[in-house]
Amino acid sequence: MITRFAPSPTGPLHLGHAYSALLAHDMARASGGQFLLRIEDIDQTRARPAWEAQIYDDLRWLGLTWDGPVWRQSDRMESYYKVIDDLWQRGHLYICTCTRRDIQDALNAPQEGAAFGPDGLIYPGTCKHRRRDINRPPPRDAVLRLEIATLEDITLTFVNNGLQVAFTTDDLHQSVGDFVIGRKDSGTSYHLSVVIDDAAQGITDVVRGADLADATQIHVALQHLLGLPTPTYHHHKLIRDENGKRLAKRDDAKAIAKFRAEGATPADIRQMVGLAP
Ligand code: GLU
Predict the structure, then answer these.
(1) Ligand 1 atom 4 nearest Cα
(2) What distance, in Å, lies between the first and last C-alpha atoms of the chain?
(3) Which atom of ligand 1 is nearest to the CA of 17?
(4) I need a labelling partner for 172 at 20 to 30 A (CA). Which of 24, 62, 63, 222 fits?
(5) Across 65-74, average pLDDT
(6) Ligand 1 atom with least separation from CA of 8
């Protein structure tokens, strides 16, 4: 088994991250496999070296060791562009110039009604009729969306928490819409880079919070489109604050660093997330 922990260095690690990292680590070690660490820093406007340094420090303090070199997504842009160019040449992508406001307005048209999917507002497809010159590489600073209607209409499956989940590309169209593959600011999107890297690192089991469970069908569809294997998924419960609210990155109250400063031990952290010390 090969698992990974893939934090974004945009804030302090909190209890939810510790839970993901500990679970992924323990599963790999119990199977005699490998636990890998990947820094997901494609959003260079928010990623900070200091947060990355703090991630290593917190993980070491928790007693976690990782195998092989750490991968950093900002070093891998060429790999993402190669795949984007390929998808573009295959006619799956289109340039979208809509602002959030445009999307909102289109969705507010009387016959539509705004709906949210795991990737935000479900895009109504406004830009899909724009001319595409697939013989020239796509611009790097444009929003590129995947036209789901260009995927063959098939049923895809994956295993989540031991259960088989099935969905069709048509379901994906309805529940997610034409999602973003290439971003204006970061060139690639979370969905594309996570799928490429999980495959490139040979990840067999993805362990992460339940907040990403709905995004998994996006990842499985991309794996199919790119001819990549689908890992087994494990989405764990979210760690919540006293008011039952999901912990956010900006929410320092549950930061590992804060517990450390207050004298907690790694065993305390394990206990707080419901793992045996
Ligand atoms: N980088 C993502 C985050 O920090 C996690 C991605 C994943 O595990 O697929 O929320």
Answers:
(1) 7
(2) 23
(3) 4
(4) 24
(5) 97
(6) 4
Residues touching ligand 1 (Cβ under 6 Å) are 6-8, 40, 194, 208, 212
Atom of ligand 1 nearest to the CA of 211: 10
73 CA from centroid of ligand 1 (Å): 12
Alpha helix ranges (H) inside the chain: 15-30, 49-61, 77-89, 100-107, 169-175, 190-200, 216-226, 256-261, 266-272
In whole numbers, what is the pLDDT of the chain averaged over residues?
93
Give the distance, in angstroms, between the CA of residue 272 and the centroid of all CA atoms in the same chain: 25
Where do the domains of the chain lie, and which CATH numbers do they carry? Answer: 2-75+239-272 (3.40.50.620), 77-182 (3.90.800.10)
| DSSP annotation string for 2-26 | EEEE---SSS--BHHHHHHHHHHHH
Q: What is the DSSP letter of 78?
A: H
Ligand 1 mean position, distance from CA 108 (Å): 31
How many angstroms separate the CA atoms of 95 and 97, rounded? 7
Residue whose CA is at the smallest distance from ligand 1 atom 3: 7
pLDDT of residue 253: 67
Alpha carbon of 43 to ligand 1 centroid (Å): 12
Amino acid at 217: Q
5 C-alpha to ligand 1 centroid (Å): 8
Distance (Å, rounded) from C-alpha 71 to C-alpha 60?
17
Q: What is the pTM of this model?
A: 0.94
Compute, in angstroms, the gap from residue 57 CA to the centroid of ligand 1. 19
